[in-house]
Structure formats: C-alpha cells, structure tokens
Specification:
single chain, alpha/beta, Rossmann fold, nine-stranded mixed β-sheet, six-stranded parallel β-sheet, 36% helix, binds adenosine-5'-diphosphate-glucose, Starch_synth_cat_dom, alpha-1,4-glucan glucosyltransferase (UDP-glucose donor) activity, alpha-1,4-glucan glucosyltransferase (ADP-glucose donor) activity, GS/SS
Length: 511
C-alpha cells in the first residue's frame, strides 16, 4: 500500500510516560461532557514516529476536563509488550478479509483510558506502525488500518461488547480515516471528525481491494473513495466525516489550492462551501517547560541562560562538535517534506561562517545516508545522529541557538514551537503552520522561496542577530513566550464537538 512511504523508520522508544504526568482533571459534573473516541495510529506514551504521536498524547488529555476522551489504537508489539496491563473488554467479528479482533483496555497512570485493538498476526510485528525493519510499507497496511477504522465504527455502533459508546468519533490521518466511512455505511448516528495532520500521506491501495475491505460497490466511484484509479483512505475520511479539520489555519487554506491540495483540493473546497473544513492549530504539551523538563541536564528560564549552556555543552560532547560557534539544530524526520536536501545544500555555508550543526533524526534511507556523509566530511563541525530518542532531542532543542526547518510544506509543525519554547530561534520556510507560529525577525526567521539562496539569506540574518547579544536576548525572550499550550486549541475543538452534537446539527445530518 503506497501510504506512509515517508514514515520509513523505526519508531523511537517513548520516554515521556503517563506515570510522569499529573492525574487528568476529569470534571464528570461538566454539563456538556460528551463521550469521544479518539482514533489514532500513534501515541507518544507508547509509540511515536512523529508529530501525530505527540498530538495523540496531548490533545485527548487537554480535552479531558471537558469530555470523556478515550483512545483507540492498534495493539502493536511495542504496546502489547509495554508492561502495562491490558484487560480484554470486547471483541469484533471478522468480515471479508478483515479478521476478528479483541478489544483490550489499558488504564494509564494519569487516568487516560486506551482501547487497544488486538490481533497478533495483524499488529504484533517488528518494525514501525507503517513499515517493516527495512523501511518497506507493510503489504497488508490496507487490511491493518481498515480494520482499525471498522473497529471504531463498531464501537460507535455499540457492537463491540464494551460497556461504553462514544457520542462522537475523532479520527486522525489516513490510518484512521476509514472510520467515518464505515460509520456512514453502517448508519451510525454519532458524528465523526477527521483531522488531517498531513495531506501528503493518503493511504492508497488497489481498487481491487474494495471487496476485501467490505467497501460497498456504490462507494467506489469518483464521488466516493476512488482516487485516480485507486482507493484512497484519506479521501474516504474527507468524503464521509461530518467535519474535517487540519492543524493550522493557513494549511486549511493551502490544501484547498491546486498547488498544495495533493489532488484533493476540489473535494476540500466543497467542504469549505459546506462549512465543514476548519483549521485548529496544534498546541504544545505542558511537559515542554524549560525550567522543569526532566529530560534536560539543567533547567533554564528567560534571562537565566546557564542551564541552556549546560545542555549545549552536553550536545557538543555527544555529537563531537567543537566548542565554539553558534549551534544550529536539525530535529526532524529525514524526509522530502522537511526540506532536508536544502539543509544539505546550505550546510557548508553555515560551517564556513563559523556555525556548528547538530542533527538528530531518521527517515528516508537516501537522506539518512547523505546526512551521515555530511557529518563524516565535517567532523567537529557537523554532528549527525541517525535515530531518535526523546531526551537527546529535547537537549538539542534546549542547547541550540537556531533550529533549521526549511519545510516544503508544514501542516502545523511542533518542532518550531518546541524550539521557541527552549529559546532556539527557528529558521523556517514561510508555509503552513510555520507562517502562523513564527514572527519573522521577532521570534524566528522566515523565508519564502523553497531554494537554497533564500534559505542562506535567512541564515545570514540569524547570524547577524547572533553577533548582537542584546538583540539575540530580546528574540529569545520573545520566542519563549510565543508557543501556545493546548489550552487555546481545546476551546476550538470543544466548540466544534458541541456544535456537531447539537440537536440542530443532528437533524441536519438526517436530511
Ligand atoms: N525520527 C523521528 N522519530 C520520532 N519522532 C521524531 C523524529 N523526528 C522528529 N521527531 C519528533 O516528532 C515531532 C515532530 O513533529 P512535527 O509536528 O514538527 O512534524 P511531523 O511531520 O512529524 O508531524 C505531522 O503532524 C504534526 C501533528 O499534527 C504536524 O504538526 C506536522 O506539521 C505534520 O507534518 C517532534 O516531537 C520531534 O521531536
């Protein structure tokens, strides 16, 4: 299944676990409290390949004071073997090529409830949620994730035997995007929301798979799931969800244009006309606190940079970097979207101007190899770690002066917000959520054209600021105040959920 191609890496071992989090505030007396099933393929406490994992760990928790938020996720090996007890609470039957599964329930230390879709053959494998240990898409991804979507619909229909039934289903990205479609075909009354974290990954498979996935024939046309001769999971979600959101306001507009619509812009424009598409920016998790983050060697705060310095020294030792020069960070999935090739092009310029570069990430094998080679050619000046772990990533955000993020497109981006919070000024392309969260010359540096020349100019502006300590200090302080925790976005999701669940909306859906 051509789907998560760019997620071609093995996930990191999550280190920020629920045990370290404060208990969730669940105000069960909240009058408008609704039951919401959040369907996802990643969850940073247990398994994370990128930003979706972070959002899945943070957003349901942030919404918990308002709603009874529960997760549904496949029972990957990393989850089943996580050491946390899983109690079997339900089951769903097989249909077509989608096998029967058990539903397990995991109660996390902070109170969050996670339903785990259990099927040993389907999910308990070495590798990542999307690819095997060689970075190849699992050949049966269409079965694995259609099964996830169908299980969500079965839970919403009250057919899974568990003593809990959501009033609303919130599906995330293509792996969960079949949920709204199965709900519609099964005439489940609960509304569904699809959040697009990245339109470029669509979950495409051969049209001939339709019968294996129990997709009604009538839904296989261009008005349904058909996408240039293939079946598209993401298109299914967009077509059938009651409402579609994406993760920044600007990206919500960008995906309605032919340039960034990945072939789905027409359908998305129709959603806009129906008031069914909105952009709700991601926030960052409360754990991103430079004074108290346990991952850091030493905490720091605005104006007190000793802790920042301690993290920088750690990073320089860890990546064998010379002690002098401004430190530029790359903390990223190494994929085309992130403009890694542009960073490869400008790296020598940074080094020539006295800068040092620290890289942590993994992704497409060719980009991993090119990065590793760059590090070998510039020992002491460019340090590259292929792989990922949360502690080193956080120390690199904290220890660096600048973050390089020349994304070709960026639905929201969390890395630039983490960097800002940790006083590392992002140098980023003016696109999507980057444009929404960085103020050029105030909390970071933006450039327009996706080319090395424009990128170099932004880097030069950053280097000029670095030479003026007062200016640098002012920008760092501004950046540290900029990123938004989830609180703001929660209000927007809450309003959306309440609107979709209002009697008027329910009546309209029936018409
Ligand atoms: N190799 C790796 N393995 C594991 N973790 C890694 C990693 N490389 C980086 N990370 C971590 O993953 C997160 C990156 O999140 P981003 O939102 O910046 O990008 P991503 O493209 O993954 O997310 C997509 O979804 C998010 C969430 O909606 C959007 O913000 C974003 O624009 C969209 O592309 C950070 O926590 C970072 O430290």
């Amino acid at each position: 299944m051509a789907s998560a191609a760019a997620s071609a890496h093995i996930p990191s071992t999550p280190e920020l676990c629920s045990a370290a989090r404060p208990p969730l505030q669940m105000h069960s007396e909240h009058p408008e409290r609704k039951r919401v099933l959040f369907v996802t393929s990643e969850f940073a406490d247990l398994i994370k390949c990128g930003g979706l994992g972070d959002v899945s760990a943070a957003l349901p928790r942030a919404l918990s004071p308002q709603h009874d938020m529960r997760l549904l996720i496949p029972g990957y090996r990393q989850i089943v073997n996580s050491g946390r007890p899983i109690r079997i609470v339900g089951q769903v039957p097989g249909i077509a090529a989608l096998p029967p599964c058990q539903i397990g329930r995991m109660d996390l230390a902070d109170g969050l409830i996670v339903y785990v879709l259990l099927n040993h053959a389907l999910y308990e494998r070495d590798g990542s949620p999307y690819v095997d240990t060689h970075g190849r898409d699992w050949a049966d991804n269409h079965i694995r994730f259609a099964r996830l979507g169908l299980a969500a619909a079965e839970i919403a229909a009250g057919d899974a035997g568990i003593q809990w039934r959501p009033e609303l289903v919130h599906a995330n990205d293509w792996p969960a995007a079949m949920a709204p479609a199965y709900m519609a075909w099964r005439q489940v009354a609960a509304p569904s929301v699809l959040t697009i974290h990245n339109l470029a990954y669509q979950g495409l498979c051969d049209m001939r798979c339709a019968s294996e996935l129990a997709i009604p024939e009538a839904a296989c046309g261009v008005d349904g799931l058909e996408f240039y001769g293939q079946l598209s999971f993401l298109k299914a979600g967009i077509a059938y969800a009651r409402h579609v959101t994406t993760v920044s306001r600007r990206y919500a507009w960008e995906i309605t244009t032919p340039e960034q619509g990945c072939g789905l812009d027409g359908l998305l424009r129709a959603k806009v006309l129906g008031n069914q598409l909105s952009g709700i920016a991601n926030g960052i998790d409360e754990s991103w606190h430079p004074e108290s983050d346990p991952h850091l060697l030493q905490g720091f705060s605005v104006g007190d940079w000793a802790g920042k310095q301690a993290n920088a020294e750690y990073v320089r030792r860890w990546l064998n970097l010379d002690a002098d020069g401004p430190l530029f960070a790359v903390v990223s999935r190494l994929v085309h979207q992130k403009g890694i090739d542009l960073t490869l092009e400008v790296a020598e310029h940074i080094v020539a101007r006295g800068g040092r570069i620290g890289v942590i990430g993994q992704g497409e094998p060719a980009l991993e190899a090119a990065m590793a080679d760059l590090g070998r050619r510039h020992r002491g000046r460019i340090g590259v770690h292929i792989g990922f772990n949360e502690s080193d990533a956080r120390r690199l955000y904290a220890g660096s002066d600048f973050l390089l993020m020349p994304s070709r497109f960026e639905p929201c981006g969390l890395s630039q917000m983490y960097a800002q919070r940790y006083a590392s000024l992002p140098i980023a392309r003016c696109t999507g959520g980057l444009a929404d969260t960085i103020e050029d010359g105030v909390s970071g540096f933006l450039f327009d054209a996706p080319c090395a020349a424009a990128y170099r100019q932004a880097i030069d502006r950053a280097l000029q600021v670095f030479e003026h300590p007062q200016l640098l200090e002012a920008m760092r302080c501004q950046a540290m105040r900029t990123p938004l925790y989830w609180r703001q976005s929660v209000q927007a999701y809450d309003r959306l959920f309440q609107r979709l669940l209002s009697p008027v909306s329910a009546r309209r859906a029936l018409c």
